[in-house]
Give the backbone structure.
Amino acid sequence: MSRLSDHELWEYIREDLPYFDLTTHLLALPGRDSELEIVTRHDVIAACTEEAARIGELLECEVAERVPSGRRVEAGGVLLRLRGSHEALHQAWRLCQILLEYACGLATHADAMLQSARAVNPHCEIMVTRKSYPFAKRFTIRALLCGGVLPHRLGLSETVLIFANHRALYETPEAFEAAVPEIKQRCIEKKLVVESETLEDARRMLDLGADVIQVDKSTPELIREIVAYRDARHPAAVILAAGGINKANVAEFAATGVNGVVTSSLYKAPMADLTSRWKTL
């Protein structure tokens, strides 16, 4: 799993600590060694703990304990323990805690959504769209991967996904349908994904050779019909449900038999409720 680089972490650090910590500088206290623990107030999936620990190291703290990303941590559990001078710990404190609050919040929400889907469809995948926070794609995708979900599309260069706007470029629907076999032939090592909104269109796209049908903003009843047609006529094809799916209704869509659910709702995950404990050594 791709981790954030030291360069990226330094950019994050310098946003909050461009020069030095003015408060601890003015206190002018002796450089006594201390210990900082970042603790969760509720059950979470740990995420980006490696990056949080590395921030501590970059700011001259010692990492005494770190829970690996992806592990479930019960309320009261320690995610990260750092040791060092009080100046170093105060510099690292909020940088580490805020990063973990966002990351663990994303991962925990992702895990809950995945478990809801898997309870009714053990092979259903949850896939997050490319609608990540601007300037924060690597961080959000990293955190969500810790929660067990997969990226749907990391960018426009890696997948072939035909939307209604692409179809509109053809003079008629018939002209687009005539072009599908050639598009399919040129995909070579990629799968041809086509978005559909009706049963008739989904059937037609499957018959023309689409590898994946993404059903957008539909009902579970319609998706169930498309899945039944796939099972009867094109068992190797993949059916995805997308549009308006979140933790509250994901089980209903997963139960249709789809291979995966595509969602943007995970980006709205609440921050994890973390706190910190200090001790002078």
Summary: DSSP finds ten helices and 13 strands in the chain.
